[in-house]
Amino acid sequence: MSTLVFNPSECVRTVTKFSECTKCVDICPVDTLTIADNNLPAFVPSACVDCGGCMGVCPSESFKLKDFDATEFFFEFAADSSPLISCRVNVPCIMALSIEHLMSLALVKEQPLILDIGHCGTCPYKEPLYANILKSVEEANYLLEAIESGKQIRVEEIAAQEQGVAVDVDQSDRRAFLERLSLKGAVKAKAEFEATLDAVSDEIREHEVGLAEIAKLRQKRLPDKRKILFTALKRAPKPEQYHTIAEEDISFASQKFIDMQTCTNCQMCYRICPTGALSSDANNSKIYFDAMMCIKCRACHDTCEPDSLQLQPTFELKEFFEPTQRLLASFKLVRCDECGVHFASLHGERVCPRCRVEEEEAFELWGLEERDGTVVFREDDDESESHQGH
Ligand code: SF4
Ligand code: SF4
Ligand code: SF4
To answer: Whole-model pTM?
Structure first.
């Protein structure tokens, strides 16, 4: 039985129904993850092979394996003398580690980080995990080089199991291997107990968003992997020169701008941003953005109706060392002629958007229209035609 746990309050699909994120679904090698009718990821625990691929790619850390905690692994591995990461030694699959974890580990380790891909060739879950491991390493190495860290991650066909680095393992059954590996004895015992309970009914596990999740959603949260990266970057020497890279060369952070011609100051982007990368002042007259708090989950882009929030085509790596909060938009505040509440007047409007909507609804309901600056009853087309006929 899988020890995978999904936390709906972390998933960006919970913060906005417009989110198109399917990273977890796309990486799953056994296709057990799907997007359910309630718009959230769901999976069948008996089909999950506990590879942790979904954990590694989820921008907001919505998944956890009960017997592998990537944050704990980072600190344990950083203190360990070995530079080797292998699915037969210390991780369920290399893909359980995010690019931020890989970069951070490479930065804090004295020796070059070595990833053992010696078992990938015979792994039943090679597709799509192996290609994604190589992609993650490529991005991590590119960034490590771009910040002039002098660190690189090595990918080697060591096959730790054959080299006798770890216990003998039945390769055909990853879960049995993980059980024997016993990364965390006490946690595992608890997981087994819960798995026994789960085994009673092993249907697709869907997740509802209850009151507790809603309360959590209101709290902005930066994923642990980002805090780890900050810690690692603090220890790294600053490059002689700050480089700028292309937007598509970094998958976990971004820089943005707002098209002020089309932005309606609807406030949705910073209200739904799960990390607080997008924020506003108390009057909602400004929109700020902090690139290093952004996890590139795209929730803000997927939600912005007029498409006003845009990715900058480049990313300045100076943000890694000197994070800044930038002003993306500033709106002129005026007092609404109807309700007296302050609102951002974009094109000289005197009535706030809420009063405008109410006014439109009232006009519709009562059959009114404005003619020559005066509110009059609308003439029904049929009626006016029949009047003309008499
Ligand atoms: S742990 Fe692996 S097998 Fe299980 S749902 Fe996630 S990606 Fe799929
Ligand atoms: S935020 Fe994470 S859990 Fe939610 S759909 Fe995206 S990858 Fe899956
Ligand atoms: S600003 Fe970044 S973290 Fe916030 S919603 Fe947009 S993409 Fe996600």
So the answer is: 0.82
